[in-house]
Design goal:
- With 373 residues, the protein is α/β, with parallel strands linked by helices.
- Helix 1 (42-56) packs parallel to helix 2 (67-76) and helix 1 (42-56) crosses helix 7.
- Strands 3-2-1-4-5-6-7 form a 7-stranded parallel sheet, covered by helices on one side.
- The protein has 2 domains: 16-208 and 364-370, Glycogen Phosphorylase B (Rossmann fold); 221-353, Glycogen Phosphorylase B (Rossmann fold), CATH 3.40.50.2000.
- It is globular.
- It has helices at residues 42-56, 67-76, 98-127, 162-173, 233-245, 279-287, 298-307, 320-331; strands at residues 30-36, 59-65, 82-84, 131-135, 147-150, 178-181, 203-205, 221-226, 252-255, 271-274, 289-294, 310-313.
């Protein structure tokens, strides 16, 4: 069977093209809190199709997060209620000591998860929630109402400590009523990240969800660069790419992935730079681009699979998950990758030797997914 090519699943039936950005609230009775982690924009991006599906099926989504993640949700759904949660303040190291950096951040993350659970109780008292959907926010759950956890990392890769980090994460997942994995049952995209033997976990595979739709548009850009992820690594990659682009004649669109008013100086006459794009703009940009250069984040892979694009990956330094996914895509003949340190723009020619992504099916979300609520 060709990678990512399979029959359409009977579990899914709603076409995202039919889902409006905002549906009227008349008659909506059940309120569902949906809260993505503010760690890059990937967690938020993959929550967008779920929010649209909730609206389609007469639920009232209530948004909660912090930082850029909350800003993106508010821009995508300006008429929905939103709440700010405590920040996890996750920072990447500038060097390779990422595991140590995250270990040192553990008390801060634990404190934030306790604080956010207190905030969720306040929100529930005010809104009378019928359910919770948390994308990798440990404390966004309540025992009194159905709580769902979204992740593609049932197993958390961390080198020699993988068994420990995976066990700890599975204990967190087990506190939720369900765990939704954005992949198919054979873990065709996520591989060993979402393969599991823990019978205590109530896992539901929801398909390769994406906020983007494939369109037939003329190619406008040779290269689309989509930056994302936590600082300082996002900025370090941006600086490296800008230096590489200065002598390039490729028609390029660089999406910085920041909600900022900062204007980047002109790189060259062939390169267009924007700080961010909302779903409709980003969808058009993807469909108008020949090749996509991005981190090998899982949400980006979901988008690329949906749009059947060719790509080149630069994993975030020190992030085992992204390195594994990049290696997996290369081994499957889908896309090449290199390290951030070694990247040169001329490496993009290697993309021609790979077949790119093939859409697995028209993944959609029907009302049965929300029967827990």
């Amino acid at each position: 069977m060709s990678f990512l090519r399979r029959q359409e699943s009977d579990e899914f039936s709603t076409n995202f093209n039919e889902i409006p950005a905002f549906a009227g609230m008349t008659g909506m009775k059940k309120k569902i809190l949906i809260a993505p982690l503010n760690w890059g924009l990937g967690h938020t991006a993959r929550c967008i199709p779920i929010i649209k599906a909730l609206l389609k099926h007469d639920f009232e989504p209530i948004l909660a997060s912090d930082g850029d993640a909350l800003a993106l949700l508010q821009k995508e759904f300006p008429l929905l209620k939103s709440y700010q949660l405590p920040s996890y303040n996750i920072k990447y190291s500038k060097g390779s000591a990422q595991k140590l950096k995250l270990f040192l951040n553990s008390p801060t993350i634990l404190k934030a998860s306790i604080s956010e659970q207190k905030e969720v109780r306040k929100i529930h008292k005010k809104e009378n929630l019928s359910g919770i959907i948390s994308d990798n926010r440990f404390g966004v759950r309540l025992t009194a109402i159905p709580s769902v956890y979204i992740t593609h990392q049932i197993n958390v890769l961390s080198g020699k400590t993988t068994a420990i980090t995976s066990n700890l994460h599975q204990k967190i997942i087990a506190k939720f009523d369900q765990c939704w994995v954005p992949d198919f049952k054979d873990a065709i995209l996520s591989g060993k990240l979402s393969s599991f033997e823990n019978k205590k976990l109530n896992i539901k595979y929801i398909g390769a969800i994406s906020r983007l739709e494939q369109q037939t548009l003329p190619i406008k850009y040779d290269l689309l660069i989509v930056l994302s992820g936590p600082e300082p690594q996002r900025t370090l990659l941006e600086e490296k790419l800008i230096a590489e682009l200065k002598t390039s004649t490729k028609k390029t669109l660089l999406v910085r992935g920041v909600f900022s008013n900062t204007i980047v100086a002109e790189i060259n006459k062939y390169t267009t730079v924007v700080n961010y794009m909302l779903t409709e703009q980003l969808q058009q940009a993807f469909n108008e681009s020949k090749v996509v250069l991005a981190r090998s984040g899982y949400s980006t892979i979901l988008d690329l699979a949906k749009l059947e694009k060719k790509a080149f990956f630069i994993p975030t330094p020190g992030q085992y998950e992204q390195k594994y996914l990049a290696e997996r895509m290369k081994d499957l003949g889908i896309a090449p990758f290199t390290t951030q340190k070694d990247f040169k723009l001329n490496m993009l020619t290697s993309v021609d030797a790979y077949h790119g992504f093939i859409n697995s099916s028209d993944t959609t979300l029907n009302v049965n997914l929300f029967e827990l609520f």
